[in-house]
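User: two proteins, same treatment. go.

Assistant:
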Amino acid sequence: MIILLKFVSKIKAKIIKNKSIPEELNIRIGYLTAISELINNYFCENKSNWNGKLETAINEAENYNPWFTKKNIHNVLRYWANKLNDKSLIEWTNKYNFHKTDTSVAIIMAGNFPLAGFHDFICVLLSGNKLIVKPSSDDKILICFFIDFLKDTFSELQDYIFISEGKLSDFEMVIATGSNNTFNYFEYYFRDKKSILRKNRNSIAVLDGKETKVQLTSLARDIFLYFGLGCRNVSKIFIPVGYDLMKLKNYFKEFEDIIYHNKYSNNYNYHKTIKIMNNEKFIDNGYFMLTESDEFSPPISVINYQYYKDIKEVQEILEENQDRLQCVVSHCNIKNSVEFGETQNPKLYDYADNIDTIDFLLTK
């Protein structure tokens, strides 16, 4: 108990130290740095009641959803521990004019990888609006853990953060993330609300054959991290005519053990069987398949590829499909491209669908 009290006291003391920003924003930033400190303490194996609860939540999340392996959960937690520091949060929020607000914002979260809706959560928390959170059934445990932590540590948040178990009600704004099918439902159901509505997007890589070993090795993270389930995961590659696809397997070896994951393996074997039965051409690499296709969204364990003769062809395709794309990985002259290995390491200001969430929340 003494350790827990010292931990909470230390967190609360940090809230009042940044005097260069408005007091209300300073307090909200303090909520987020508290999360970072909790996670860092967990990895440092500092003993406290909340660290024990976090470990329990991680184990429960992995048992409940097999896609949420402990390795992937730890990767997400390290990401947020690194991002939610005073310097990054102040730099991020400096360009906005935060003001007193009392709007209720509903967040309908995705659950394709651990804490998929967390960025929306912290945006609303920073804005000072009230939160009505509807977690995905696939990612309820971790989201609810951090909400419980904040409300228990900072009693003033008891009246600002709510979890919706049923039908959403009493909100003025909504941020909803789902599939292409649920998007149509969102459009109808939230037609009278100020909203950000998201549907499926994919990420792609554009290669020219001059990539370094480090770049191609890093590309494996863009493809396989979180089993390729995120919209920031690369699901298709554009390659010049004559490109040797067989060499990719050697650069992707870091993730070859992915085939031993039961659900991933089932997907791999299923889609491989379908391709064989349909007499489709594909390249089998033992733990992923390569298929030539114009489509951006292949099933799990499959990477689509498309040849090009001139990079301008690719640029035209990307321009025509910009509303379907989240990230483009390349060292070529591609607009807004992301460095290899960085798709799952976005900056705090890298908003989904390129819609500024903070600006949306602060604009009446």
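Protein 2:
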Amino acid sequence: MSIKIFKNIILSYFLLLFFLVLLSFQYSSDELYSNGLQEFYVVFGGLVFLVFLYCLYSLYKFKPRGKKLFVPLVLIGSMLEYLIGYETYNRSDLERFLLNLEGVLVGIIFTCLYFTDLKKEFEK
């Protein structure tokens, strides 16, 4: 896989995250939080999101830090989404499609990082 394609995938993932954040504003706080830890989830989720944006920037620039941060941040984000507990049946078809596309892009990035020749770019 070429470097240009990998960078375009990273940019596509960044844009997808932007659209998912915009879609998340349609929910009220009552729908998003099923238990009483609202403030913790908002602060922790915001910090994880900011670190994840830095991780995407690092991946785009082929910095080894980005490769080390990617998998743990994806796992933390998935667990946080589960802990927040907003119901999947309330999601629109567009949101479901974008979330599935996010999973595909995460899989492509993970595969590029660990199973293609691009992994050598992070060792420089």
